[in-house]
Amino acid sequence: MIVVLASLGAAFVLLPVVALFVRAPWGRIGEALSGVGASTALLLSIEVSLAATAISVVVGVPLAWVLARGEFPGRNLLRAAVVLPMVLPPVVGGVGLLVALGRSGVVGRWLHDALGIQLTFTTAGAVVATTFVSMPLVVLATEAGLRGLDRRYERAAAAMGGSPWYVFRRVTLPMVAPQLAVGAVLTWARALGEFGATITFAGNLAGRTQTMPLAVYQARQIDPGGAIVLSLILVVVSVSVLVALGGRLTGLR
Amino acid sequence: MKKAVAIATLLVAAGCSGTSSTGSAASSTLTVFAASSLTAAFDRIGNDFMTANPGITVTFNFGSSTDLASQIQSEGTADVFASASGSAMDSVASDPGVTDRTNFATNRLVIITPPDDPAGIASIADLAKPGVQLVLAAKGVPVGDYARQSLTSAGLLSEAMKNVVSNEDDDASVVAKVTSGEADAGIVYASDVTAAGNAVRSVTIPAAVNVVASYPIAVVAGSTQTEAATSFLNEVVGPAGQATLKDFGFGPAP
Q1: Which domain holds residue B175?
Q2: The pTM is what?
Q3: Quick one: B167 and B225 in the same domain?
Q4: Does B182 contact A at CB distance below 8 Å?
Q5: How far apart are CA B186 and CA B86, in angstroms?
Q6: In chain A, which residue's Cα lies nearest the Cα of B114?
């Protein structure tokens, strides 16, 4: 019975991917690739997803540390707030970002009027939207890792005179590195697939905010075959990375 | 063998529950695929129609006409199709086919800006001023193609395209980018302005360079509800439907 259900589950997940391969316009794949601007969108996607991952790690890991180690009222509320972008429809995140950071948003108005910074319709805006949606993954994975650590090492380092920042950097971080890496990869994968928040907040313009998922969405209006080719590229890139890291994704748990 | 039977049973069960919702005679559900620019007008026409025909429930699927056409071709679940462009209707007419095709409304293009008009847009020529943040619907979406056509007639296409900051999926998304104050201007249908009310300011595009979009409606071949579909279509082209469409900013059929 387990095997039956597992096969159903696997078939369900694999069917759309197989169908993409079956229906791809293999005869005119080169033409389809250039017609929908695949390389521009792919380059932008890689740029945006890597930037989002980097920002997520830089601010998300300290956030995970606070959630795992901090003792303060409202910690569970803070954790819920951090996870929220994962469960919200991304388009809701995009609307929230618009009213917060848009040109006439709560903070965005000030950014625009005082500093001349506009995030909407820019690559930076795409990075902001993508980070918002994908950061929870690295926070959650790192927090789980921190909770599983043997804290005696940190206490020993602190007892020998290490400052909290030194202990965090030289003792805690190396021990939590495997979980952090898993979280970063998942964050990157989520960032690569981000669509709803990006198109809502940053818009859709080739070379500036049109990442692969947006290019797929637009291509299916004009060239459904091209949309399939673009989708396949995303599948191949994602699967390659996930397979390359596959053993490490689960083996370290 | 047991496994195969189990899988087959599950698949059959799933298939049955998926199709059992159609074809009951007592109360029937009519599925209407309509261009997103028709949302407000068709919601009202649908309610009026259901009040007059208690046995029929009308459900709408609003979206870009091009999208709807390809959904009809791959899924075949629409009884009526109301399109914002002749070409989307043409493709449904060739596969799976349509009957009773007729034009029922027209729509013109207008420029919209936020109420405070941050970029000072007074005419279509201003869309080509450097630095204006212009939002259009994407190429392939009827209102996006019409907007490009109009800019071409005005001799502004290449300059205006440099100002485009986003290509949206439909007219509703263009309106949203302008009402949120992010974009300086957008080109949408006159009916969108009626729907948006005070949230936008509108600037007329002269008739000489404007594009008048004709909206065709038809019963989709393969519909199991042809009678209900035809009477809904008659409601739309009849006096009551035409009055509603006029209220929402549409022009009469050509």
Answers
A1: 109-204
A2: 0.81
A3: no
A4: yes
A5: 23
A6: A104
